[in-house]
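[User] Once you have settled down, look closely at the record that follows, and write a paragraph about the fold.
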Amino acid sequence: MPEVIFNGPAGRIEGRYHPAKKRRAPIALILHPHPQFGGTMNNQIVYNLYYAFLNRGFSVLRFNFRGVGRSQGNFDHGSGELSDAASALDWAQALNPDARACWIAGVSFGAWIGMQLLMRRPEVEGFISVAPPANRFDFSFLAPCPSSGLFVHGDQDRVAPMKDVQTLIEKLKTQKGIVIDQSIIPGANHFFENRTEELLVEVNSYLDKRLGPIGEVAAPQAAADTGEDAA
């Protein structure tokens, strides 16, 4: 996967980008867990989400938020990271001006950032939020949530307890015009330790439902780095 460097609001941003083979292919942006708790673009779940979209013919970008890896800048408690994500999507769209749609997938802190970006970008037609920390960050901006998507979380998640995620999902399900799907992974904690394959089955099943099945999905990829967050 090609390494890329592009300009962000706090300086250079390091990413990995794979262009689609077909014109007008949709774009997928993958957002990693909390930078201050070991989250990087090489997080195992982020890495596998990247390939889930790549296998479906998307142009896919994942990147390190400011201050992570070779991305310049310092952690900015979400505000700057949202700007980073917006710049990343701008960069991908500039390379793919004919892209017909966009999806956002985020893990934990990245799910919170992704949902904020979703509110600002009407071209985003779908999302996947993995282990959203509804107890730690304010999700009230989703009023209303503009796109249909999938929430995935574990029933043993003690960092972002299921009851808080459930409250968020039930609120969103009352909104008209969108469909919120939910997958609960039995035995999974916040990091989906020993449950990554089950997570990917749920994600791929949802993408099959929304986008149509693909001929053969590649086997789950091993991550180069499994640094994971606590939020």
